Amino acid sequence: MTKKGWEEFFDGHASRYMGEVFVKNAREEVDFLMEELKLQPGNTILDVGCGTGRHAVEFARRGFKMTGVDLSSGMLAEAEKAAASAGVTIELVHNNAAAYKPDKKFDAAICLCEGAFSLLGLGDDPIERDLMILRNVNAALDTGGKFIITVPNAMQKIRKYKQEDVASGNFDPVHVVESVEMEYGSGEGKRKVHVREKGYIGSELKLFLRLAGFRTENIWGGTAGDWGRREIKLDEIEIMAVAVKEAEN
What we know:
Oligomer: single chain
CATH superfamily: Vaccinia Virus protein VP39
Number of helices: 8
Number of domains: 1
């Protein structure tokens, strides 16, 4: 099967991903997540869109039992190497988050730094796909389990694009979806792939979480390297939601 879109991009970019500037704060970010999740070592955490495992490995170092799910086999290979280097064990699952059906319950879940959620395939419905991911995460949690997610900030996208971008098809103002070409390096030189990404405002994210069976506790600014209990900056890259699974229907 030919890889397309985000799977092709992340497979191609996997070996270079940990050189990005926004990945340098994993320890501080996990400190923050631990305060919010209020878990104890030995608890189980589902990492949706785990990528190279930078958060999962750090949690595993601290005694948590981690399961990471990701679409990209290249990113999972990097996560496996990172776990081996750190001397920890992580369960890694190669799957699309919208199709992932967990066979066990977790104490908490995370979906961070544009991990799966909001990253659309060329034919994906921007509402149904993301709702499916949230419903899958909800099904994976015990009642009362916490879920922390960061998503692209719609306000930043709206302020960035112009009317001509709407006319050209590069920006969909109804769903706040941008269509762009992403470049990555490969053994054959630089390559480009067409991808789609959806942005969210806080109220829309709260609605999606509610429809999936969550109660949102807080919405904060969520750009990597600048996490905290603070208001959203209009031009920052991501926002964060802290949510709790409601009782089973």
